[in-house]
């Protein structure tokens, strides 16, 4: 019995040593004290409108009737009986940005908005509608990105599709939103895949141990970014062991059933 137990204990010990991690492996921004922050330029971020974005746009004027033609609203409909069905009157419909970067705006027609920030889009629409308004009117245009989201896949702690209600999210905020990284996530190789307004893809690999991630061009996420969190060797090995174990028990179960059936037939 000793001859069997000792090798088993040795194998378990080796596996435990291989899976052991130091606290350093879990630290974020480990070198933050060594970075000269004073020499680093500040970084502000404004999301830019992309094809297939959905925008809500409201126009306000001192005379409400003057703004009405520029606010695309959901219309009410009537049943055949004449009863009114409220389909959301007063709620604004969204404008879908087409592949060429245009929206179809009431009265004005096509407006190219792709690549603009929210503020730039507001200024452009204000400029377009001003000739249709009285000179004393100073319209207020508000643009919101209704479909801004990013996707997290791989060794994530929580939900995979993350909405961004305020049109600005950093990779740190995104990870916090999904429940942070699991103990089985590789922290120095976080992959971000990005598609620009022309359909061109690019990617970056971020190291969350390194505090300089705060200055990385991909630190602030762009709508439709894909964040891939790679599993470490322990996660991969555990997954393989789990699949092998399931297969093993399935095979054992089938063999046991066959043997039991054969024994019953022989006895009969």
Describe this entry's structure for a reader.
The chain is an alpha+beta fold. It has 5 helices and 12 strands. It is flat, with a radius of gyration of 29 Å. The protein starts with a helix and ends with a helix. Residues about 5-15, about 80-90 and about 240-250 have low confidence and may be disordered.
Give a brief outline of the structure.
By secondary structure, the protein is α+β, with helices and mostly antiparallel strands. The chain has helices spanning 2-19, 64-67, 118-129, 171-177, 233-267; strands at residues 54-60, 77-78, 84-85, 95-96, 102-105, 109-112, 140-145, 149-154, 161-163, 190-195, 201-206, 226-229.
Secondary structure elements and their pairing?
Elements: H1 2-19, E1 54-60, H2 64-67, E2 77-78, E3 84-85, E4 95-96, E5 102-105, E6 109-112, H3 118-129, E7 140-145, E8 149-154, E9 161-163, H4 171-177, E10 190-195, E11 201-206, E12 226-229, H5 233-267
Parallel strand pairs: 8-12
Antiparallel strand pairs: 1-4, 1-7, 2-3, 5-6, 8-9, 10-11, 10-12
């Amino acid at each position: 019995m000793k001859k069997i137990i000792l090798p088993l204990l040795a194998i378990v010990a080796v596996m435990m040593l291989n899976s052991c991690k130091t606290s350093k492996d879990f630290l974020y921004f480990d070198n933050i004290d060594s970075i000269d922050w004073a020499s680093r330029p500040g970084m502000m971020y404004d999301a830019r409108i992309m094809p297939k974005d959905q925008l809500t746009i409201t126009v306000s004027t001192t005379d409400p009737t003057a703004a009405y033609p520029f606010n695309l609203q959901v219309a009410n409909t009537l049943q055949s009986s004449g009863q009114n069905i409220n389909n959301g009157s007063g709620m604004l419909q969204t404008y879908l940005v087409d592949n060429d970067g245009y929206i179809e705006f009431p009265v004005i027609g096509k407006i190219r908005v792709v690549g603009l920030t929210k503020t730039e889009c507001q200024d452009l629409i204000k400029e377009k509608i001003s000739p249709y308004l009285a000179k004393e009117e100073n319209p207020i245009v508000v643009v919101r990105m209704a479909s801004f989201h990013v996707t997290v896949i791989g060794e994530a702690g929580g939900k995979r599709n993350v909405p961004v209600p305020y049109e600005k999210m950093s990779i740190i905020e995104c990870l916090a939103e999904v429940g942070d990284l699991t103990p089985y996530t590789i922290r120095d190789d976080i992959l971000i895949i990005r598609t620009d307004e022309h359909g061109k893809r690019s990617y970056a690999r971020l190291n969350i141990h390194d505090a300089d991630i705060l200055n990385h061009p991909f630190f602030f996420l762009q709508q439709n970014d894909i964040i891939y969190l790679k599993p470490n060797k322990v996660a991969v090995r555990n997954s393989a062991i789990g699949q092998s174990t399931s297969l093993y028990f399935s095979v054992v179960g089938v063999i046991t059933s066959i043997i039991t059936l054969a024994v019953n037939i022989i006895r009969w």
